[in-house]
Amino acid sequence: GWDGWTGKDISTITQVGAFQMQVKSLQGPMKSGLPGAIGFEDFAGNQSWVGLFKDYVKGGLILENWTQMQIPLKDILSQNRELDITSIKQVIFTLEAEGDILIDEIKIVKRDEKK
Length: 115
Hints:
Helices cover 4% and strands 39% of the residues. The protein is mainly beta.
């Protein structure tokens, strides 16, 4: 949660917005994205998730230098139509393998048109 756990209304940006972050591998190239997922949760407990696939990685590989990942909001939200996009409680990450990575510059941006 952010901003004191107040609900966030993302309904006006779902088609043009993206969740963006910089990622960096500390153990050589990662060819399949990150082994995990990102999700949104509303105050009713509804969640919607999407895997952190290589299609979301600029250039397709996470390297030992900073690499951009951009996940369209519509991809995250399409997994559960019951999620209340006018009252998002929190963003949730899950990572499911061993290894060392760094994540930085997490933000919501206007989606790259190519994505």
